[in-house]
Specification:
The protein is of the alpha+beta class. The protein is 52% helix and 16% strand. The longest helix is centred in the middle third of the chain and has 32 residues, at 107-138.
């Protein structure tokens, strides 16, 4: 399949590494710049989670494969969050994907962007795992650390196994190889593992300056770009 991205595998790797090493905003910016330069990527409901530079530099909407005029008067910024790596903007553009749009319009871009989001979220989840590991390894309970507690150790091992399984599914997959349903399934697995990791952080995981906030925004990201559900 020929895509509009010159080197898709390199782009996906860059987004994954940026999320794991730098944070959500750099990874989102790399994905948007690589697939939809100058456009504001939106999910089917018209919601967007983007890096601040992408929001500031957008001249049009990319709405589930269709281009639309960007009307600032209709858009509502729901939140601007300063996360590790930079500011992320959550907004409602006031639009929704037209029901009668051409199913093939923007399909290549949608496939790359959709796969990139899963890679990106996996990178964030792996960074969260590293943060949890470091914190648990330094918090002592009696003569041992929290990491040595049986239940904690088991949860960490389960999360690691989950991440490895998700990465195994993604590795080698080209845009379009995985169905929207499978991508949503992988998002769900990442979300479930993230929630387990945030619980390991205890109360600290729910503070606004903790890794838990990035995990929460990662979950919102998956919801914003989830494939549109067909009516029964």
């Amino acid at each position: 399949m020929t895509t509009l991205v010159s080197d898709t595998s390199a782009l996906l790797e860059r987004c994954h590494d940026a999320a794991r090493r730098e944070g959500l905003a750099p990874a989102l910016a790399a994905l948007a710049d690589g697939v939809l330069p100058g456009l504001l990527p939106c999910g089917p409901g018209g919601h967007a989670v983007v890096a601040a530079p992408t929001h500031a530099g957008a001249h049009a909407l990319w709405l589930d494969g269709a281009r639309r005029t960007l009307d600032p008067a209709r858009a509502t910024v729901r939140a601007q969050l300063d996360l590790p790596g930079g500011r992320v903007v959550l907004l409602d553009t006031g639009h929704a994907a037209p029901a009668d749009r051409d199913a093939g319009a923007g399909a290549e871009q949608a496939e790359v962007y959709g796969l990139g989001l899963v890679w990106l979220r996996l990178g964030l989840a792996q960074a969260l795992r590293a943060a949890c590991f470091t914190r648990l390894a330094h918090r002592r309970v009696g003569d041992s650390t929290l990491l040595q507690q049986q239940l904690v150790k088991g949860t960490v091992a389960d999360v690691l196994a989950e991440h490895l399984e998700i990465q195994a599914v993604l590795s080698g997959a080209r845009p379009g190889d995985l169905s929207p349903g499978m991508l949503d399934h992988l998002h769900g697995r990442i979300t479930a593992a993230d929630r387990e990791q945030v619980r390991l952080l205890g109360a600290a995981g729910y503070l606004t300056d903790s890794p838990g906030l990035t995990a929460y925004v990662s979950e919102l990201l998956a919801e914003a770009y989830a494939a549109a559900k067909e009516a029964p």
